[in-house]
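Changelog-adjacent note: as of this version, every example in the card shows the full chain rather than a window. The one below runs 344 residues end to end.
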Amino acid sequence: MPLIAPSNYEPPTRLWNGHLQTIIPSLFRKVEVSYVRERIETPDDDFLDLDWAFSNDELGMIRAAGRNNELADAEHHSSLIILSHGLEGSSTSQYLAGMVRHLTHNGFDCLAWHYRSCSGELNRQERFYHIGETSDLHYVTQYTISKGYQTIYLMGFSAGGNVTLKYIGEQGKSINPAIKKAVVFSVPLDLMGSARRLEQWDSLVYNYRFSRTLKRKVMQKAALMPSAFPTEAVLKSRSIREFDNVFTAPLNGFRDVTDYYTRSSSLQFIPSIAIPTLIVNAKNDPFLSPECFPGELARELPNVWMEFPGEGGHCGFTSNKGGLNGTSWSEERALAFLTESNSL
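Full-length structure tokens:
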């Protein structure tokens, strides 16, 4: 499908660069969403926490309780959007909560699922999550299909966008027919390129923030499983890439960080995607390298649209009309793609 150019996104004039467009909404945007939390057990004796938000509260509570027989036939065909958050994010991250608010107001049920250890409680097993792990997303999609949903859309942000693209690419033409479309924003399609971008001087603040959060979580887990983690090496790591080399890669069976990033990057899976998919990456995103803007690839693929606005930052896309706490451009863009038959 064609590269969508030019994009119609224009940021507020006061947010005049990618860093402001990233940081200001992250720190100051306030979005309130009422979730119903559900915990499901995984086959490996762990758990995933799911936060549900419904377009119809009464029907939503019935569905959350698994009482599908109480739903009218037509309601069995209501649509669900499964949202995957970014690195160390959650259902309350402003970019995700804002999307849930907008989509539920427009008739969609939403499920914001948490990666292992991201729901406010450490998971049971040694392993956490990583940016190429798709088995949990598959488990969640199968679970929602068992709830009675027959029309499902997938959405991901940043790391969650990589997981989403990798998953639907792995599934290819064998993807469950209930999964109709996907939309992703601010995706590090090439993980090594993004890791290097985050080590440039103007993005070090993001690198430091994530590294600190990840190391703190490992130390909390190490207190429960003292022999399981290389705490000294973790504490000495100075970047996300170093952390992934000494912790994430070996914990998950990769040789090293290069092997981990190479095998987990979603870019290589995009040609196998068999459902309509929109990828939106801002050119001034301080997390993304040039490899994350494969415009020529977009022109070759039948099911993938790519849109690269000049502005937007990382998971920003604040509207220049509704203010910081209003509906963002990305929320409007996602709704348009999901609801328009031509997907443009």
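Structural remarks: The beta strands are 3-4, 36-41, 47-53, 79-84, 109-113, 151-157, 179-185, 277-280, 304-307.
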